[in-house]
TrEMBL record:
Protein's UniProt name: Transposase
InterPro entries assigned to the protein according to its UniProt record, in alphabetical order: IS402-like_dom, Transposase_6_like
Segments forming domain Insertion element IS402-like: 12-67
A UniProt-annotated Pfam family: DUF4096
Amino acid sequence: MATVAVTRRHDLTDAQWAVLEPLLPTVRRPGRPPSWTKRQLIDGIRWRVRAGAPWRDIPDCYGSWAAA
């Protein structure tokens, strides 16, 4: 599954992501690479908290609700 760049109004900017990304842990286990980027998952979590919606209502562009 290919990932799509998300450019929504309330998503992290490139500058914000540049500050946050080095603070996140790196994946060190073998296997299949993740289908969703960490940036998509974090933006999805931020969307969910801001909207107050259930996990299953997260838009598909942020990744699967079961992945977070």
